[in-house]
Every structure is written in C-alpha cells, then in structure tokens.
Amino acid sequence: MQLDTLKRKNPNKKAQQVGRGGIRGKTSGRGGKGQTARAGNKRRPQIRDIIKKIPKLRGYRFSSPSIKPSPVNVGELNIFETGAAVNPAVLFENNLVRRVGGVVPHVKILSKGELTKKLIVTGCTVSESARAKIEKAGGSVAKL
Fold first, then answer.
1. What are phi and psi of 71, to 5 degrees?
2. Domain span holding position 105
3. 116 within 8 A of 78, measured Cβ to Cβ
4. β 120-121/107-110 pair status
5. CA distance 119 to 142
6. Is residue 119 part of a domain?
7. Which run of H or E residues covers position 141?
8. What is residue 100's three-state secondary structure?
9. Domain-located, residue 27
10. Sheet containing 120-121: which strands, arranged edge to edge?
C-alpha cells in the first residue's frame, strides 16, 4: 500500500454547478421571474400607500380655547323664579344646556331676548350686553 493509492472511505461531496455559474445556481434564491427577482426590489405594502393618502390633523388638538362654552340666551332665563341663583348646574337641571363629554359644560350667557326677572348669575361667562340686561332687570352677575 502506497500513499498515492490511499482513498477516503467517504469522498467529499461537491455541489453540482449549472452552466450559468454561481454557487446557488438557477434563480440564485430569488424565486421565479418578475419584479421580485430583480435588483432594487423595495415594494411597500398596499396599506402603507392608503395610510399616506389620509390627510394629517394639523394644529394642537388639546388647547383649552378649542373648548367652546355652551350658549344660553337671556330670554331663556325667564323660566326661573325672581331672586333665583343661576349657575351651570341649575341650567343643566332645567335642560338649557347638555353635558359635553359627560361633564356639565362651561356656559356663556348671550343677550338675545328680554329678561323680566331679577336673577343672580354665578359661574358663567356673560357678554357685556347680557350683563346690562340682567342688571337692568335688577339682578347681579358674579365675576368668575
């Protein structure tokens, strides 16, 4: 027995190569033909294009000026008795304002209509002309 005649029991296996070259062969791990087999394939998911087309909300959504007070006209306050105290909670009980987000809202009293009863207004913003009508009727407006 000579060194040049020795053979391995299990010879090394070599991958079969195809005529186009390359160690992976045929499609080189890219699947079939088409866009995905080409270089530079970076397609976005379809839902992303839909999301991109939706307009963005502009501005700061949580600032307090965006919360507008509920308006109540002076003429609607004639349902109260003379000398009654008027505040947002009482206006809510009498169905003159509705809850906003589950909370009794801030109220602004405006000057439309005429007031015939003396009322004490507290906890509400009052326009200048509405203040004049309330005071003309003998009532008063407490500052916030």
1. -85, 140
2. 70-141
3. yes
4. unpaired
5. 11
6. yes
7. strand 140-141
8. strand
9. no
10. 85-86, 120-121, 140-141
The answer as to whether 50 is a domain residue is no
Asked if residue 99 is part of any domain, the answer here is: yes
Task: Note whether 107 and 97 are within 8 A (CB).
Answer: yes
Confirm whether pTM is higher than 0.85. no
Q: Which of 45, 95, 47, 50 is nearest to 70 (CA)?
A: 95
CATH number at residue 126: 3.100.10.10
Number of domains in the chain: 1
CA 60 to chain centre: 10
pLDDT at 143 over 90: no
Q: What are phi and psi of 100, to 5 degrees?
A: -120, 115
Query: What is 39-72 written as a DSSP string?
Result: TT--PPPHHHHHHHHSPPPPS-TT-GGGSPPEEE
Rounded CA separation 132/138 (Å): 10
Cβ contacts of residue 75 below 8 Å, gap of 6+?
112, 113, 114, 115
**Any idea what DSSP says for residue 28?**
T
User: What is the rounded CA–CA span in Å between residue 98 and residue 105?
Assistant: 7
- Convert the pLDDT of each residue in 25-80 to its tens digit: 677 778 888 888 888 888 888 898 898 888 887 776 665 556 788 999 999 999 99
